[in-house]
Model the fold of this input.
Amino acid sequence: MEIIYHDWNENDSPFLEELIDIFEENDVMVACPYIDRKILSFLISRANNVKIVSDVVAWLESCSTKERVKTIEFINALGERLHHCPKLHAKVFFNESKSLIGSANLTNSGMLRNIEMSVVLDNSEKLDELRQWFKKLWDITEPLDYDNMNEINNWEKRVAKDKEVKQKNKLNITKDNSPIISGYIPTKLRKYKKQLSESDEEVLSRIKKVIDLFPSLEWFNEFLDIWEYILEYFDIQVDDQRITLSVPKAKDKLAMTVGQRYVATGFTRGEIALIMPINPDINEEDKSSIIKQERFTNNGKLVCKLYYFKTNSPKKLFKRYKTQILNLIKHELERTEVSGYKRYHEDILYHIAIDRIKRIDLLKD
Done:
């Protein structure tokens, strides 16, 4: 028996590392109420076969409206490999030779953010007990009948209506009709590199050199958390023409641009530049950390500013002014069709911002 835990100061996940080993070319049994479809999809791609028991209703209720419809498609793709068990609270993952049992759900929070504890068991007698327990659970549960779940049907209709409205407004919304379960998310950067073109290799090398210049990996990771939040909040897809994620030639920053305006840029010297209102509500402590301001105008009229802050925690700073920043980003997205800096956009930056597994690989290399 081995006890593992997540140190909240670390950027990697001991739970995910153990799960990769459990799933790798094995038949795997899973009992878990809350699941991130991207993480589960990644693990399934490595396994021979899976059986999953989850509280599907609780799982879906934990999803955002935008994420829920994708999760429903994912659940439908799982078919009979997933059984619904109301009030399930167990978090158990095991194959023929090893199990992981503990407090962590199969979510970004459980794997990467929360303070969690798990136990790895390889005792054959205990594994036999687990198999018997899971078999009983599997036998008394069954796949969910989605046609009779009014709430799920309502969710699908509401999200579909939202998408229709956005399309009428000619916003760049990308539909994802492919079964996500077949998606591949690499676990090691060397495997990821094999899929990159030569130009992408050069971009990746440039990004890694910039990362090394940031105050710390923790600072860099917090900054990417801000990008992840913005991209998820506005449902920005990798091919959205309104937004640019780039490594400018100076190689001293990572920049997010919407239209013609920088909205969230992280500097290797420990500064972050955020789009802010003309007269933002900034507390006294943060005022002392302002390095400079830049003016954004429209037809000669001042419309907003770019504030440069020196900070030890970019994520905490962003959180304090999140509402003001998001309102301005929303305005820029609504008035933009194509970013003026789009030729500098790097897809790799989008993927490491939005996909925590790829980001972990990058940070560990």
About this structure: Confidence is low (pLDDT under 50) at residues 6-11, 168-198. The domain at 2-168 is CATH 3.30.870.10 (Endonuclease; Chain A).
